[in-house]
Fold:
Amino acid sequence: MKLKKIAALIALAGLSGSAFATNGYFPHGYGMKAKGMGGVGIAYGQDAMAAAINPANMVLVGNRWDAGVDYFRPQRESSINGNICGPGCSLDGKYDGNSSENYFVPEFGYNKMIASNMSLGVSVYGNGGMATDYDRNPYAAFTGGPGTVGNAGVDLAQLMIAPTWSYKLNENHAIGVSLKIAYQRFEAFGLQAFAGMSSDFTKLTNNGHDSSWGWGIGLGWTGQITPTVKLGATYQSKTKMQELDDYKGLFAEKGGFDIPENYGIGMSWQASPQLVIAADVTQINFSKINSVGNPLRFPPGPGLMLGNNNGSGFGWDDMTVYKIGVAYDLNKEWTVRAGYNHGDQPIPSSQTFFNILAPATVEDHLTLGATWRLASGGEVTFAYMHAFEETVKGSGSIPNTPFGLGGGNANLKMYEDSFGVSYGVKF
Structure:
């Protein structure tokens, strides 16, 4: 019981004001060193956050701890055109979702060698998140006119605690396994317009924050294939979460919101004593989570209402993410990094209306980073990320229904910036 209370306190601290959608609602990377290199790390572990990407790399990292925080600033905007919600009524216009726009995401990792070929560690990190807050509710007119339902938005944050065992099979190969203990917190507000589509409208919206726990398994391998080339592979199982009971009229499976499985392969090349080039390809299976992957149906048929086992959702597609990064040692004190990250955004043009709440449209990320090694033995790492503006235009995404949606298109726009700093010590 004491351990669970400690874990809950860690989770609450880690989720305080956090929102970090870059690859769908996953971050572009884990750990400041990886974040400065486009998020790569499957075949290139650099710190005690390595378990978040590939648990096999922890035994290669050795004895160390790392702690940091990322300042994250997303800019979200939606627009509606071609809408007629009733006589003399239209929702056409732009909607600013940035009433809340400044977030801080902490991270912590610790790793200890318990034998020359074995380590135990733990990595604590934000696994994903999404937040919007519209002062002008895009759905207000559907329930009686603008201003009748206050703000609209969502607040989702997920934190992972990953105890990790890692083992060197021989001089060239290592494996690792992590128990992924997940905590998530969620709130939705201003969604009264969808009450007629919900299996339980009392558990649809405006119920404050609800939270749940769950767990999954992470597996990894790293192999030194040539003196200069490493390969790696990693697999993260679906994390089965407890239902969010206060939102069982919103999410499919009576409040189910599991974390999707994801997996990937990577390589790193020691091109020179000073230069490392690394690349990863990862797959995130959003579509296999009903509350995320099922489309929003108009009108919902039997068993397809919000909250039903196979109920409506956000209609997200699976996502393949490509990452490449470089690290260069300028001298004994400084290493500089740069990277690029690309993934086709997961929202189909037909599903933009509900995704006004979650406009995860960004695709291309440019990153920079650096590590400063101090005379005391510690090191300070910096990472910057810019996700370029991306717009998804709706294609008949607002149906013309008998209960007054009025047709038209919902268009989504987002760009993001983040800046992080961490401190690490080898021991």
User: Anything to note?
Assistant: The mean pLDDT is 92. The helical segments are 2-15, 32-35, 58-61, 252-255, 290-293. The two ends are 31 Å apart (CA to CA). The first strand starts at residue 64 and ends at 81.
